[in-house]
Design goal:
Blueprint: H1 4-37, H2 44-47, E1 52-57, E2 69-70, E3 75-77, E4 83-88, E5 97-98, E6 103-104, E7 108-109, E8 121-125, E9 130-135, E10 143-149
Parallel strand pairs: 1-4, 3-10
Antiparallel strand pairs: 1-2, 4-8, 5-9, 6-7, 9-10
């Protein structure tokens, strides 16, 4: 016959394991996941730049050899002009597609999520210094490069 002490010890051990697992799950879902998914802290002047920087997709951009993204190789400054808007003024849909995966820790992946229809626009808020070459997916001869630089306050 087994002694009651050993079965009580077994029961207490199981309860202790269940409590430990519950505390771990609560910590993971309440603190770790939200913390790991949180956006980085970014200065207010970078989140609200002084002006929007406009890049125009010009009429006739689809024709090889014509100007396409104007300006084509701009330099934008963090806190001054780092909110960039690509306006499609052509009569053909276009994209803004990075040549290689590009992302911003605050704003996420760079690049239009599909075509930018005539009259529509795509905007992106840059919060980090970087240089991104990009193109139009259906018209790969349409290329540009944007450089994001620190402003000299």
């Amino acid at each position: 016959m087994s002694s009651p002490t050993s079965s009580h010890a077994y029961g207490i051990g199981v309860i202790a394991i269940l409590i430990g697992m519950s505390v771990s799950v609560i910590f993971y879902t309440s603190f770790y996941i939200p913390e790991s998914l949180a956006k980085p802290s970014v200065s207010e002047h970078i989140l609200n730049p002084e002006v929007d920087f406009i890049i125009e997709i010009v009429p006739g951009a689809v024709i090889d050899g014509n100007e396409n993204y104007v300006p084509n190789q701009p330099k934008v400054l963090l806190g001054i002009s780092n909110k960039v808007i690509w306006q499609n003024n052509d009569d053909t849909p276009h994209t803004v597609t990075p040549d290689h995966r590009a992302s911003d820790a605050y704003s996420g992946d760079f690049g239009s999520s599909g075509v930018i229809k005539p009259g529509d626009s795509y905007e992106f808020l840059f919060t980090e210094v970087q240089e991104i070459p990009y193109h139009c997916e259906p018209h790969p001869w349409m290329t540009g490069t944007i450089s994001i630089e620190l402003s000299r306050f």
